[in-house]
Design a protein that fits this description.
Layout (H helix, E strand, L loop, with lengths): L1 H19 L7 H16 L8 H8 L3 H10 L4 H16 L4 H18 L4 H19 L5 H13 L10 H15 L3
Helix pairs in contact: 1-2, 5-6, 6-9, 7-8, 7-9, 8-9
Amino acid sequence: QENNQDSQVIGEISTTINKLYPNKNFNPCSIYNILINNLYNKGCDTVDYKNWQEALNKKSITSNEIKKVVHTFIEDPLHENILNDSKSIINDLKFNSLKKIKIRNYFNNLIIDLYNPTSYHIEVENIIKPLVAHLVEAGVDDIEAIIEEIKIQVSNHPRKELLDVEDELIAHIILYILQIIGI
């Protein structure tokens, strides 16, 4: 009976991923095994937590963790191109290594969220992408100049609190530059 339950869960994983990521290759058994392994490891933590948030962090799998596992097993050559091009852009920026790593991490999360964007991502895109498009179409080809101009424009935007993390803002700008120039 346990094998039957495993098969049903694997089937549900497959059905869900096919809906979210049509025409992508993936291995639902590998995804299932990693998620179950993560749940097992978190289940080994037998401490009772007084703080609900701490209990969730220590004893559950978040939707972001699930997205990362699923994305790891989905083959998408387009996103490989975007990731490679983003690395080139980030390496060219005049930031220290720690800041570059933070930007790269935000960018990697954005790529994962492209498959299933939240209202937050859509709202941020509606604010930033037109600004980036205007600058790129006007012939501005210096990425640092684009970043600085967008930061100025965003600081005057009524919803600027959405974009108060500079590294995340830079990751969004890089993504939209790559999308606009057709990568």
